[in-house]
Write a structure and sequence with these properties.
By secondary structure, this protein is mainly beta. The strands form five sheets. Strands 10-11-12-13-24-20-19-15-17 form a nine-stranded antiparallel sheet, with no helix packed on it. Strands 5, 14, 16, 18, 21, 22 and 23 form a seven-stranded antiparallel sheet that branches. Strands 1-2-3-4 form a four-stranded antiparallel sheet, with no helix packed on it.
Amino acid sequence: MFDHLPATGRLVTLRDGDAELTVAPECGARVAAFRVGGRDVLRPATTEGLQSAFTYGFSAFPLLAYSGPVFGDGFGFAGNWYGLGRNVPAEPCAVHGEGWIRPWRILRERPSEICLRLDYEPSPGAFPFAWRGDIAYRLDSGRFVTELVLTNTDRRAMPAGIGFHPYFPKSPGTVLTFNAAGLWPPDAPEAVGEGYGPVVPGLDFTNGLDVDEIVLDRCYEGWDGVARLAAPGGATTVIVADGALGKLQVYDAWDYPYVCIEPVSNANDGFNRAALGVPGHAIAVLQPGEQLAGTVTIYREVQTTGRAAE
């Protein structure tokens, strides 16, 4: 059932100064590590994770041609119903599109940049429209820049979304801060008809919250494109996004030493929300040849308070 899932394949390491990025192009264009000065900015893939190519065992992966889950057996679009089967063993429904579980080819490889492409053709039970994905991963003065471009190569209009799913280390006292205008309800099939509401007390990150103390899996509406994750000791990781990436998904499990801070374009279960006319779903409708694009930049800024921060 899941024989389409790729092996890890060749790893490509980019370097720029003391920054290092490792990518697995053949394994869903996933990132295996990003470190600066020998310290991990993203959670690194383990040796066991690389050997098994476990879908959730990497540092980050791209989301194309949609982000989040699609509950039920599929979705309706333009008067037609399209069935979707499970695409990874760990989930009860299709999730995060096809880009993270398909092999990408290398268009260009340089010491500090790699450009990848995937020409996706639909297959039974998978996303039913043809598309092309282009990803540029680049290191620039210690910054990890990801450029995502999704192009409709089908002969029909196509519903679409994009995103990026990185994992960040966390420890007690790690504080996440960002501004958002609203909050979508918890994911559930019965919530598909619900839109976003106000940010509720206890889940408002405007003034920062300790992520070690929170269990959370929610999509934030109207994100302003900047998030900061401050670790004890003075190092702050900054996540910046632009283009179509106007929402932020935050996943924070109590029993894992990481937090996911995911810039995305569409609400979870976006196809079904779009079919119901739920405001704010942000599923784009791309005509043949049209594109959806966004950029994510991740970097570490070190603040000093009278002495060198560790």
